[in-house]
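Data availability (excerpt). The following record was deposited with the supplementary files.
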Amino acid sequence: MEAQELREAFVNFFKSKDHAQIGSASLIPENDPTVLFTTAGMHPLVPYLLGEKHPMGKRLCDFQKCIRTGDIEEVGDNSHLTFFEMLGNWSLGDYFKKESIGWSFEFLTEHLGFTIDQLAVTAFEGEGDIPRDDETAEIWKSHGFKDEQIFFYGRKDNWWGPAGVTGPCGPDTEIFFDNGQPKCSDECGPSCHCGKYTEIWNNVFMQYFKDENGKFKPLEQKNVDTGMGLERACCITEKKSSVYDTSLFAGIIAKLEEISGKKYEGENIRSFRIVADHLRAATFILGDGVVPSKVGQGYILRRLIRRASRYMSDLGYDGIFMEQICNVIIEQYGSSYPELIREKETICKNITSEEEKFHKTLTKGLRRFNEMLKENGDSKVLDGEMVFRLYDTFGFPVELTSELAQEHGLTVDMEDFQNRFRQHQDKSRAGAEQTFKGGLADNSEETTKLHTATHLLNAALREIVDPNIRQKGSNITADRLRFDFNFDRKLTPEELAAIEKFVNDAIEAKIPVVCTEMPVDEAKASGAIGVFDNKYGAIVKVYEIGNVSRELCGGPHVENTGDIQGFKIKKEESSAAGVRRIKAVVGKF
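Predicted structure:
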């Protein structure tokens, strides 16, 4: 079953079970400092898993675009990807284990054609005060599973959450495809990596709340969160040995073969896969408004583009090519993700600009690296000074230098490199490596104030600076808000003072914050603005703050602007080309 057919089959099946389809959220998490990108289908739904009412009801389903960056260096094998899609269905305080397991089994067997003998499942074995999940095992047995098809594992394998320090969490049951090969040992099971078992689906049962003391209490609202990886499901249903050999990559790889003049075979396979994966991810990230930069999401985007350029050069191609691949990706995915079509011109412009910048230095940088190898003599370590010079002069990411060194049996003295350029390197990698407490599960009083203040700041910028300003990104911690917006110059001190006054006047006016649910078309017609329109369903929440602000939003808000107390801008700076950033705090001053 090919990708689009699988997406439609999944969504239509759950619609038949009274689920409402919701749109994919942006890859850029809204007001979540714990991660750079949306990493799972549940990511945008955490406020509703915490108990907030979803305008589309208690039963939801979707296909969600995701990015995970922890395994970039592993891309090129049979399964690792940077960008992937998750098919998911949710129960927000409605059905629970029996229905969730039953429907998963029904879809896999009656719609995807699996037999029960091709499946194996896992359940939580219990730990501390939390008992073994025998209920899940018994439900699987009621569908005909034998004891030898049911495996119990601990927290590492069969537990989810919470998203932050505290929050909802619970056991899960994972469903695996058994390809029929013999077990590698008596202990062989789904947690084994011998290749016999491939995970298809994960059903999470959120039935506990972890408090500040690490205690687990039963949740009043029990939820179900499931996820099926589209690429992995396609790999199995299309009977391929690699996700890169499925219909999802066929068009991209065919175009790469045409451009490079090389075949997707033998020693070329890894380079083809890396270029295909990275440009698919880059296209989607660009489509959600990110531009290449030195920090955060922009740094990851830049790294993906530069790695793709480097591995295309390994295929012997020395020209500018990425826009051609973007066009293939946009054509393939545009019907499912219309933002790609809408942002096509911007995507192609930005990826070509970044490609051209790096292309000019790639050849010189590779030449300099080869000179470094000779200068390094018999040493197996490249010293930090040499690596820093390559970075500083040629714009070579240290990760790329490290990869090149590894291919020659060398290592990089990273401590030395970081000592020489610690401040910049810390800044570049902070977004990728640093996490904050709370995050998605942190609907605290302070973050709620900051969230509403963001709406007022957005309104102030449009009123005082330019009515065409649009939010390009937002990040909220318990201490401050960060707001990115499209604008091509530094704001003047007078403008910043006027913005601050506008927001504080709205706070002093003690305006009620009113939430209304309405059809999305009616919301837009009323003048409400939305940051990421494609993530909203047919019914949306509109937060109205008098005649000051009217926005589509799903986040937490104060009941009255007076609750914010005060607003102060701490910094205004450039975030990327054509994008400015404001950092601000709230409270009494």
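Summary of structural features: The first strand starts at residue 20 and ends at 21.
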